[in-house]
Amino acid sequence: MLQSYFKIAIRNLLRNKVYTAINITGLAIGVAACMLIFLYVKDELSYESNFSKADRIVRVAGNIVFDGHKDAFAVTAPPMLSAVREFANVAHATQLANTDKQTIWHKGQVFTEENLLFADSAFFSVFDYELLAGPPATALDAPRKIVLTEKLAQKYFGSVEAAMGQTLKLSRDSYVITGVYRDKGHSHIAASGLLSLATIEPNLPEGAQDQWFNLNRYTYALLTSNNQLAAFQDQLNVLAANKVNPWIKSNKINAVASFIAQPLKDIHFDTRFEHDLTPQGNISYVYIFGAVAVFLLLIASINYMNLATARSAKRAKEVGLRKVVGADRGQIICQFLGESVLLTFIAMMLALALVQIFIPSFNLLTDKQFSSDFFLNREFMAALLAIVLLIGVVAGSYPAFFLSSFKPADVLKSDKQPRSGSATMRKALVILQFSISLIMIIGTIVVFTQMRFLKNADLGFAKEQIMVVDIPVGDTTLINRLSVINQKLLQNPSISNVSNSYSIPGQPLSRALILAEQNGKMEEKTIDVMFVDYDFIPVMGIEMAAGRNYNRNMHTDLNGGVIINEAAARWLGWKDPIGKKVVLSTSALGDSQAKVLGVVKDFNVSSLHAEVQPVLLQLTPQSAGYLLARISPENQPATIQFVEEQWSQFDPKHPMEYFFMDEFFDRQYRAEEKMLTVFGYFSGLTILIACLGLFGLAAFTAEQRTKEIGIRKVLGSSTGSIVLLLSKDFALLVLVAVVLASPIAWYGMSHWLQDYAYRINLSWWIFALAALLALLIAMATVSFQALKAAMLDPVKAIRAQ
Amino acid sequence: MSKEELVIDTQNLQKKYVTDTVETTALAGVDLKIKRGEFVAIMGPSGCGKSTLLNILGMLDSPSSGSFLFLGQEVASMSERQRAKLRKHNLGFVFQSFNLIDELTVEENIALPLAYLGFSKSETEKRTLQAMERMGIAHRRNHFPQQLSGGQQQRAAIARAVVAEPALILADEPTGNLDSVHGREVMQLLSELNEAGTTVVMVTHSPTDAEYAHRVVNLFDGQIVTENLNIKRHAAELL
């Protein structure tokens, strides 16, 4: 019996090639997209799972409420380590600290390493990386020791063995290689090497071991068991209440601190905390991708349902006959379900091939490294077979139940045309398909428009034509001589102005505690600070709203003046800010009282997700991180070359690294850009699959109405009016879909736009454009079939019945 | 006539079709008894209810009221599933338009009833071959229906109807789509089957075909108006 089902299924598929191709292509695209999405989602959800004790590792994060304003940090202060180690349920605890970008001099060559971290000797007790060489317990127990990843060891020394015991010269110090470990990947700790934390411990300012506001350590604890999280949190609460907050009070700071035990596995999607080691994943994208996968499969399944029921008239005789010779309804249902499962299985094989082709592009799109043999494991195979069965049964169920309901007495009469399934049901399904496609199209247009808005928005500074040169850290002699290169660069007429600044837009700012004049008294406030020089404001093209810029000739500006933005003036309630008193508290200089010299117009320091925050621009010409040069758009390559030449004379030790401010700033929108691309591709796919189905349905309708078309033509109807006749029903379906999809898309996309402080309006034209696009594509699809039917010789058309 | 000898026994069989506005009576109280081994032809003008009667006798449709005993069992109140079971064990159908499955070969078409009856592969092959040989189409076993002439298709359809050796064969205008030569061939085959013991009920327009039957039942407006014994056939059998 199975054999007969199988034969019939195969012969049916071969006989109806167009129909088979539509179904298989649609399903294959759907299944392939699903596989890729499955890979992405699984990957996103499996962060930190490579650590065997991941369930027991927590990170201590902190909240500081200051003046009603809450800040949440992924970092804590150095004393957190010893405090946590005293907790009863902590087996081990370790701390990490960030480093700046490091220059490495090796065998006469200069390299840059960005992903080095400081770690203490307990690191390998908490995170079970496999050490390929070196003792885990002591590899990081003393100053100037470094443990490399296998990759880095091979990069510099060719092998693990050759690296051991060697010395590597970094920006500030030379380090002895005391270990090599294998990176596990898939962790927020994406270090390429670990420097011993003991190296920088002596550099801490005096009394820093009790300094609870020195937020520069990532603190991790390995709990004794995985049910100790609540108990650990309790102990953190006790620590905050009994030790940290009393310390804050004793220092007369008006703030309250609390700590949060963050399970290791939650870190990847937990966006609450600032200053994390690596950028967070976005759980919304996981949901969106998942939804898109379901949508694609649904649309492809609907094609199958619609085409199968539309064509059911052709299978009616077979059903009737099988019933006559003894088949019961269950057997017929099984047969048709079997057919849809078979079709899905063929589609799945094709999908596997498609995935092989597209996996490199998908890797590029998602910044992941999926290998093309991902499916060669039992888990995936089982999931795949389950999906095939699921789609087969879902897509096949409606046709199966419908077809099996035929009464033999009805369908076996030669003079009676059996029904072709419920046209209403088919229309409803087409509307559903187009609604989904429209939601995707509207989403794509909205994301695209918002992206264009973000990139072209007036940021309050001129981000174009600013070349930014990275000044190597730790080389104070270089920084002291910066005026030399500044002068050299200004000799080039293409360079209009140069600044040496520590902070630039697009980078997280430091937050500082200040005293600000409030009704004649000085009150504590925290504010974001940018460390700038005399030329920062003109080079950036930031406009003054009141007062003046810093002036080299006014010596009191250096410690006695500050510039704030309009938001800061508003926030501090200053109607006339010029001359207001501010006390800057910096550990290096001690407290220094300053007056407001000027107010700059608001400019966006960070992405347009956030509103402009109060910012204080502090004059610190001695601490430069970047050289900013405003260059003219003409002869740009020549100007860049000029800067490079000047730099190589100025600093022969470091290779010059540069970027452009606009690109750097727009990098903050990479997640959105990726989402736009993904959305674009997938909405293209949904509309493609939906149109495949529409193409099939249009062919069916044209075939079914052949006689009508013939009679109309005999009576004098034109080809155009027949095309219109056949197309208008489909156009109506698309229009209904527009009505259904628009509010849903509006709701979803307004929700998405909530993430931006600066955003586009969801104007009517977005919806109109999407509707027009969908309508055009649908009509192009349908009119091909309609035209074919309309051009048929009327005699043939009539005879066909 | 004892009850056991009856293959079909209907009393006051009625069938009404009801649409939104119209009620059509297709059968208005049919009493029909058919004995085992009989060959009965049902005749009458178009729309008189012949096909409806045949569908009910073939358990493809159920009556609106009345009683229908098949081999002594009441069928009128049976579920679709029970009827399907009874059908596949006892009935064979021959249609005017042959109704072979286009996607299956002649042999596969003929073997289909055996598959639903759960016959073994070897038994299926044996019986299918016998049926094909009996109908003279064994040489066409691997052809698809469209590759055969009408007569060959109907022979394949008859082979399918008899392959499971049913007690009753129902034929709905079996020669309606055939020329006279092929029509005669088909009637000859049905006649031979009947002589071998199979009960045959046939709906026909053709008086020539009706001559092969023992008895002709004339239907008009859903009622049996006359029943004629076919003297020629009875005489032939008596001789």
UniProtKB/TrEMBL annotation, chain A:
The answer, when asked if Membrane is one of the entry's keywords, is yes
Q: Where is the ABC3 transporter permease C-terminal domain?
A: 291-406, 682-790
* Database matches in InterPro entries: ABC3_permease_C, MacB_PCD, Macrolide_Exporter_MacB
Which ranges carry the MacB-like periplasmic core domain?
A: 20-237, 464-609
Pfam families, alphabetized: FtsX, MacB_PCD
Keywords associated with the record:
Cell membrane, Membrane, Transmembrane, Transmembrane helix
Localization: Cell membrane
Does this UniProt record's set of keywords contain Membrane?
Answer: yes
Write down the superkingdom of origin: Bacteria
Record GO cellular component, one term = plasma membrane
The record's section on PANTHER family has:
ABC-TYPE MACROLIDE FAMILY EXPORT SYSTEM PERMEASE COMPONENT 2, MEMBRANE COMPONENT OF TRANSPORTER-RELATED
Query: Would you tell me the protein name for this molecule?
Result: ABC transporter permease
Q: Which organism is it from?
A: Pontibacter oryzae
UniProtKB/TrEMBL annotation, chain B:
InterPro entries assigned: AAA+_ATPase (IPR003593), ABC_transporter-like_ATP-bd (IPR003439), ABC_transporter-like_CS (IPR017871), ABC_transpr_LolD-like (IPR015854), MacB-like_ATP-bd (IPR017911), P-loop_NTPase (IPR027417)
Q: Which Pfam families match?
A: ABC_tran
Its keywords, alphabetically, are: ATP-binding, Nucleotide-binding, Transport
Q: Which GO terms describe its cellular component?
A: membrane protein complex; plasma membrane
Question: Where in the numbering of this chain does the ABC transporter domain appear?
Answer: 8-238
**SMART domains according to UniProt:** AAA
Q: Which domain of life is it from?
A: Bacteria
Gene Ontology MF terms: ATP binding; ATP hydrolysis activity; transmembrane transporter activity
- Family per UniProt? Belongs to the ABC transporter superfamily. Macrolide exporter (TC 3.A.1.122) family.
Looking up PANTHER family in the UniProt record yields: ABC TRANSPORTER ATP-BINDING PROTEIN YTRE (PTHR24220:SF648), IMPORT ATP-BINDING PROTEIN (PTHR24220)
Protein name as it appears in the record: ABC transporter ATP-binding protein
Query: What organism is listed for this UniProt entry?
Result: Pontibacter oryzae
Q: What is the lineage of its organism?
A: Bacteria, Pseudomonadati, Bacteroidota, Cytophagia, Cytophagales
